[in-house]
Design a protein that fits this description.
The complex is a heterodimer of chains A (430) and B (214). Chain A is an alpha+beta fold and 430 residues long. Chain A has three domains: 154 residues, DNA polymerase, domain 1, CATH 1.10.150.20; 94 residues, Dna Ligase, domain 1, CATH 3.30.1490.100; 82 residues, no CATH class. Helix content of chain A is 30%, strand content 32%. Chain A is built from 13 helices and 17 strands. The relative contact order of chain B is 0.20. Chain B is globular and about 55 Å long. Chain B is an alpha/beta fold and 214 residues long. Classes of the chains: A alpha+beta (430), B alpha/beta (214). Chains A and B meet through helix 12, strand 10, strand 12, strand 14 and strand 17 of A and helix 2, helix 3, strand 5, helix 4 and strand 10 of B. Strand 10 of chain A pairs antiparallel with strand 5 of chain B.
């Protein structure tokens, strides 16, 4: 037997009270939609008596919590959900009475495909009772699987297991130390033990972690907190431990550690199955570790995917975390951009920051260029191109740009800043 | 029937052809088939010879196939606007800026190659002096070659002077270009350049003309 509670106030989403009410009667609960919970009540007869008394008890506790809801008890979860959603008040649908009890429910209130809705309407069917009165074989012949499913719902014979909500668990470990730790190695040893325990629990629950929060209590009374967001949820203690080690080596605590609190935020693990015909992609767990190592090598903000900023300022870009979306089969053929026609577009190599330069002019055109590592007569030049922007901001720029070819080789983009009249080499075409 | 036995063990047997990935440069793909996967390709040439344009074309081809690519930038020289103009999908591009540190770039390339799964990894050593290139221990190149052997990763090294030696299965040497300007006076425009590149693969050398438009 199953009980279903449907909160009738449409403006209120599924509340913690509704979950708490269901969990007061059963440890396993399914959330069926925004305002509905369904849970098994087998075995509660010894505590509360027959189903009508149990229903009265649930209704009483719900009223104490201030819930406005319908309640239905039935042999199958779908029957209970249908009755709770569409029949106001409290209902106990006895086995064998499903079709009669559900008969008044209008078909238009059910979430059916539009095409099926129209077909049933054309047949003159208005309620679940009308569907229950039809011969099931004829319905299956005409409507296929959807027809069979609708008939089973209408007659209360739809059988399915509950889709249980994951248990609410906190994955955290706290350790108070007798003696302060002033070295990273013993601290990492301690963390690896805690991580091992937390990851074992995570894996047992079929979850993974997408955030590590480490809080270290310091001897001087301070606190050192590190929060590591993981783009790909992971449950491997070894990989998480390496990520934590790299971060702590880059950001060690400023004083000896007296307390450790480690918390993992649970998330659904990403399916690892990769298609046979999909292009190669880095394994997510290995990629995450590699990114952490690269960050330790080149520093934060120096790796990721570039993004062009919405401005005309030359060289404006940002770097965002590298998180390639998962490829799916057939994508290449569907969305592959056509190859550009004609010769490839010339790329530029930038000097960062732009190289200060000395430029000799002849007839107001560059005749000689000299900068660090670059010097020579200008053989040809195109320009000037005046560009200005963001004059309303402190980052305003105004400059005259030239493309110059040196006699000894190389085509460079140079510019003259209009405010200081200083020359710079921005980059080289390559 | 018995298989033909070479007269000497020093005579190389038939070379096994690896899978190739198109570079996006039609003339080059026709001649050498593209970049060999699981092998090192070396692109060298003077400044303004079209090396970076060729690498951007390779990156565009790889990302358009849905592959992830990595660009290890030893001199922070990459221009995102140029890469976007070439059609590189940024979402699949991992850009590692090493801040003019060639040693960090080598270590970063090693990490990326050992992580696996990238369709194309480019190590950009452009701007690194010949002296510094010569100081790179040769074991690095053997290590890179070993890391990608048997994988579907194509590894491209871009530099001003040859550095990878015999570890490179394909060598592309860009020659000094002929810039193209048009117009006169203030209306004069830089249109791009025409260059030639020599592709050396499987013991053969091919000459390919290469153009890029500004």
């Amino acid at each position: 037997m199953y009980a279903c509670i449907h909160q009738t106030a449409p403006d209120r989403p599924l509340t913690a009270e509704l979950q708490a009410l269901a969990r007061a009667f059963s440890p396993v609960v399914e959330t069926a939609g925004e305002r509905t919970v369904v849970f098994p009540i087998d075995g509660l007869g010894r505590l509360f008596g027959p189903p009508d008394q149990l229903a009265a008890e649930i209704a009483r506790r719900g009223a104490e919590m201030g819930l406005v809801a319908n309640l239905a008890i039935a042999a199958q979860p779908d029957t209970a959900v249908l009755a709770a959603r569409h029949l106001p008040g409290v209902h106990w649908i006895r086995p064998g009475e499903e079709a009669r009890s559900l008969a008044p429910i209008p078909l238009k209130a059910m979430e059916l495909p539009e095409e099926l809705h129209q077909t049933l309407k054309l047949w003159g069917l208005r309620t679940l009772g009308d569907v229950a009165g039809l011969p099931p074989i004829g319905l299956a012949e005409r409507l296929g699987e959807e027809g069979v499913r609708l008939y089973e719902l209408a007659t209360g014979r739809a059988v399915r297991p509950l889709h249980l909500d994951p248990p609410e668990s906190r994955y955290e470990e706290t350790v108070e130390l007798d003696d302060p730790l002033d070295n990273l190695e013993p601290l990492l040893f301690l963390l690896s033990r805690s991580l091992g325990e937390l990851c074992r629990r995570l894996q047992g629950d079929g979850r993974a972690a997408n955030r590590i929060r480490l809080e270290l209590g310091l001897e001087d009374g301070g606190r050192h907190e590190r929060i590591l967001e993981l783009p790909v949820p992971q449950a491997g203690a070894e990989a998480l431990g390496k990520i934590l080690r790299l971060d702590l080596e880059a950001h060690p605590p400023p004083a000896p550690v007296t307390a450790v609190r480690l918390e993992l935020r649970p998330a659904d693990p990403r399916p690892a199955q990769h298609g046979l015909f999909l292009p190669p992609a880095p394994p997510p767990d290995k990629l995450q570790l590699t990114l952490a190592r690269l960050e330790a090598l080149v520093g934060k903000g120096n790796l990721g995917s570039p993004v062009l900023l919405d401005t005309h300022r030359p060289g404006a870009f940002a770097i965002q975390p590298f998180a390639p979306r998962e490829e799916r089969a057939g994508r290449a053929a569907e969305t592959r951009a056509p190859a550009p026609e004609g010769p490839p577009r010339l790329a530029m190599r930038r000097y960062e920051p732009p190289l200060p330069a000395r430029v000799r002019l002849r007839a107001e055109r560059p005749a000689y260029l000299s900068a660090r590592g670059i010097a020579g007569e200008v053989a040809d030049a195109a320009g000037p191109w005046r560009i200005t922007g963001e004059w309303w901001d402190a980052r305003a720029w105004a400059r005259d740009e030239w493309d110059v070819q040196l006699a000894r080789g190389g085509v460079y983009r140079i510019y003259c800043a209009l405010d200081t009249r200083a020359w710079f080499v921005e980059g080289v075409y390559d | 029937m018995t298989a033909a036995v070479p007269a000497s063990v020093l005579i190389a047997g038939p070379r096994r052809r690896r899978e190739t990935a198109p570079t996006g440069i039609a003339a080059l793909d026709c001649l050498v088939g593209g970049l060999e996967r699981g092998a090192v390709a070396e692109i060298t040439g003077p400044a303004s010879s079209g090396r970076t344009t060729a690498v951007a074309a390779c990156l565009r081809e790889a990302t358009s196939r849905g592959e992830c690519v990595a660009y290890i930038d030893a001199s922070n020289a990459a221009d995102p606007a140029s890469l976007a103009g070439a059609g590189v999908e940024f979402e699949r591009l991992l850009w590692v800026r090493c801040g003019r540190n060639a040693e960090a770039a080598l270590k970063a390339a090693d990490l990326v190659l050992h992580a696996g799964g990238f369709g194309l990894v480019c190590l950009d050593l452009g701007g690194v002096s010949r002296r510094e290139l010569n100081r790179i221990p040769f074991s690095w190149w053997f290590r890179f070659r070993r890391a990608i052997a048997g994988t579907r990763t194509a590894f491209v090294v871009l530099s001003d002077h040859p550095a990878a030696g015999s570890c490179a299965a394909l060598r592309l040497r860009f020659e000094a270009p002929e810039p193209a300007f048009s117009g006169r006076g203030p209306g004069r425009l830089f249109r791009g350049f025409h260059s030639r590149l020599r592709a050396e693969a499987n013991g053969r050398e091919h000459a390919v003309s290469f153009s890029a438009a500004a």
